[in-house]
Amino acid sequence: MHGPVSAAWLLVALCAATGSYCLLRMRSAVEEQRRAAGGEALMGFGMAAMAVPAAVFTPPGWAWPLYAAVFGAAALRALWSARSGPHHLHHLVGTAAMIYMSLAMTASPAAHHHGHSGAGVPLVTGTLLLYFTGYVLLSGARLVPAAATAGRTVPVRWGDRPELARACRLSMGIGMVAMLLTL
Asked: CB–CB of 167/143 below 8 Å?
């Protein structure tokens, strides 16, 4: 992604930490939590890899289509999971955004800072920005009441804490907004 190097490194750190926590969540005793955590770990690490500043590492030309293929497979899995409930649709939108950004990076040379040549924000980018901005605002609002459940008496494992899972999703949403802004 293109943008300030310091912001890119912060995004790499945020996404890698989120992906790492999602790997921890994959050890949950709750099957649905494990499934969601696997997809979220892929998103976190994929976003971290995409956010590495181009000044430090420019991936070879074949890497972006490979990213698109990996997230295409993840999108098919999310589409299959969406039949069990609408809460999986967010994963589908997230993987579609990753495919879109991968394809935009394929078409954009490393020195080019905007894939749209200054002609305004492309419709797909704008739509994804609106979606993820709304998602971040809604997730942030849902995170606030989760702190009220901190007085529970049953010890909960780190991978099963709902407020941490929400914070994980919130941070990935913020990361997605940042990546879309620099596209």
From this structure: yes
d(CA 102, CA 151): 43
Q: How many CA atoms lie less than 13 Å away from 164 in the CB half-sphere?
A: 19
Cβ atoms of residues 47 and 176 within 8 Å: yes
- Say how many C-beta atoms besides its own lie within 10 A of residue 22's C-beta: 24
Give the pLDDT confidence of 82-133 residue by residue, as tens digits. 888 777 788 899 999 999 999 998 887 554 444 445 567 789 999 999 999 9
pTM of the model: 0.82
Q: What is the C-alpha to C-alpha distance for residues 99 and 64, in angstroms, rounded to an integer? A: 9
Nearest residue to 88 (alpha-carbon basis) of 79, 100, 98: 79
